[in-house]
Amino acid sequence: MGKVVIFSAPSGSGKTTIVRALLERYDRFEFSISATSRAPRGAEQHGREYYFLTQEEFRARVAADAFVEWEEVYAGCCYGTLRSEVERIWNNGHVILFDVDVMGGIHLKRIFGDDACSIFIMPPSVEELRRRLEGRGTDAPEVIEKRVAKAAFEIEQAPAFDHTVVNDDLAEAVERTCEVLNEFLAR
Ligand code: ADP
Ligand code: 5GP
Known about the structure:
Layout: E1 4-8, H1 15-25, E2 29-31, E3 34-36, E4 50-52, H2 55-63, E5 67-74, E6 77-82, H3 83-91, E7 95-99, H4 102-112, E8 116-122, H5 126-136, H6 141-156, E9 163-166, H7 170-186
Parallel strand pairs: 1-7, 1-8, 2-7, 3-4, 8-9
Antiparallel strand pairs: 3-6, 5-6
Helix pairs in contact: 5-6
The structure holds adenosine-5'-diphosphate and guanosine-5'-monophosphate.
């Protein structure tokens, strides 16, 4: 079994932005491409950001026990980590970088234990979270409301993670994350 790094955060905290910065800095990391039943957003491509499945395809894989973990993150939208994805990345000799929702992050930490470093990306405030989601311009107002409504509960789960990094100034948040990861990788 190899190492894994888990990132979770309320949607809009800047998790994807931080993960992209890390993938540019570290050759050892490979992004775990999740499967999802939601539709592609913007320029997203099948097999790059996600494996986009229909509800029926997603359900069939659940029934076949193809997932390490999966969650219905938003009503009607399921996301999950395929066992085949974990094997693929470890076979490449890479450290897996997971970007999953908060409950998925807690679940994966339980599965991988000391081989995992779990990091919670904390927004400076819920108001700022809403501003970022609005500024990103990729989600309809009702989708933004669903995401913001979940944030308070998600923030309460932060103590379940190995580390919390506040993403106020982006460059500082990336530096702090690198410190945490360097210590984990050296272990
Ligand atoms: P998540 O993956 O957590 O949903 P994103 O990485 O998509 O969040 O970031 C949400 C929006 O906030 C994006 O438009 C991104 O450019 C912006 N953003 C990310 N980090 C910061 C930051 N530190 N300060 C201001 N805006 C940020
Ligand atoms: P988005 O629709 O913004 O891409 O993602 C919504 C949420 O689903 C994010 O919090 C993201 O981290 C989470 N997510 C993506 N893939 C997975 C997964 O495989 N498992 C779980 N539990 N959550 C996921």
